Amino acid sequence: MTDSLNPIELLQRGQAAARVGHRQEARRFLQQALELEPGSVEAWLALAGVEDDPAAKAACFKRALALDPDHMEARLGLEMLGSGGDALEASDELEAVIAAASHKLEQAVGPAPAAAAQSPTDDEESLTCANHPSVQTVLRCNRCGKPICTRCAVRTPVGYRCRQCVGQQQAVYFTGGAADYVVGGIMALLLGGVASFLMTLLGGWFFSLILGPAIGIGIAELVRLAVRRRRSRYLWLVVAGGIILGSLPSLALSLIHLNFWPLLSVGLFLVLAVGAASARLR
Q1: Cβ-count burial of 269 within 10 angstroms (0-12 exposed, 13-18 middle, 19+ buried)?
Q2: Same-domain pairing of 201 and 139
Q3: pTM over 0.85
Q4: Number of domains in the chain
Q5: Residue 189: is it exposed, middle or buried by C-beta count within 10 angstroms (0-12/13-18/19+)?
Q6: What are the helix and strand counts (H, E) for the chain?
Q7: One domain, residues 251 and 192
Q8: Which of 126, 147, 171 is the last residue of a domain?
Q9: Same domain, yes or no, for 22 and 64?
Q10: Is the pLDDT of residue 89 over 50?
Q11: What pLDDT digit, counting tens, does each position of 3-13 carry?
């Protein structure tokens, strides 16, 4: 499916996958983009952001600097990595790091250009956040140039961006439509109903313990095949709801007949199957 994508599309998909935490998939897209266009500095920076190994991160930053020796973001990333920067996720250090990093970049290359309509006469020493006018900041979104504070900043593989720009790029990753929700919901309803009825027939909680996660993953994979592996932001929620609704007749039947063990079996199955399916589709 990705064979027909050009390097720019692969880069966009890799960046979007990184935004939603799918680091392995992001690496795959970015590596494919670099195979087609090894001279893309932005792709090397994005790959550095999703690499787990500090040595691999450093190698990506070095490749970016080899292509563009004056690229301050790559140079700063390498410096921060060398000083233990990959451990800077802690909340008590994040604000100081953002401020220090953006201050270094502004000293070196000047502030990022902002739209004239936003702040035509702003003094760069007294910028205020576009969303929180009472909060001073030295940070700008590196895509649209809007001033943002640490509460509005989203750390990405290529720098800090505002939530609006991140949301726009996530749309590249979520390619499913309304029909995918309908297909996923119907399949989860039917398969969840059949599986829960099977649990009532088996009647043992240990069967649910063993089969619940496997059935949940199986339902998720069948839904993914049915929607041609397109991703939708809330598909996991629709599938989870479908499994629960499909199990309601079996739960009601067990309650009516006051059958404790089938009720326990279906309840345990629901918890495990819904959890596994949701995790698979997120």
Answers
A1: buried
A2: no
A3: no
A4: 3
A5: buried
A6: 11, 2
A7: yes
A8: 171
A9: yes
A10: no
A11: 567 888 888 88
